[in-house]
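New to this. Please check this record:
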Amino acid sequence: MSVKFDENKCIGCGACVEVCPGNLIKIVNVDGKRIAKIKHIRDCWGCTSCIKECPKMAISFFLGADIGGKGSSMQVENKKESCVWIIKKYDGSKIEIKINKKDSNKY
């Protein structure tokens, strides 16, 4: 399990840095642009906190075969009243799971 940062989408806001429990994500300058990076991606715990906080969907979570993902990836789009979990499957198909924020702690 690991995360992947899309340098083209990242705006260097630091939201992911603030929530990383392992203090693994750093904001660095690359060609004059601030972007988020993890020095050693193997150190990532796979908690997905950064993915849920990224306002630009610049971070995706790799769902490996060991957890049934067969190489799929997941991103989270935060909206005012909901979160949309977007799973891009290895075969090119996509699944979206919408979670109402008001009901997220209901069960």
User: Anything to note?
Assistant: The mean pLDDT is 87. The beta strands are 2-5, 25-30, 33-38, 59-63, 72-78, 82-88, 94-100. The two ends are 27 Å apart (CA to CA). Helices lie at 15-19, 49-53.
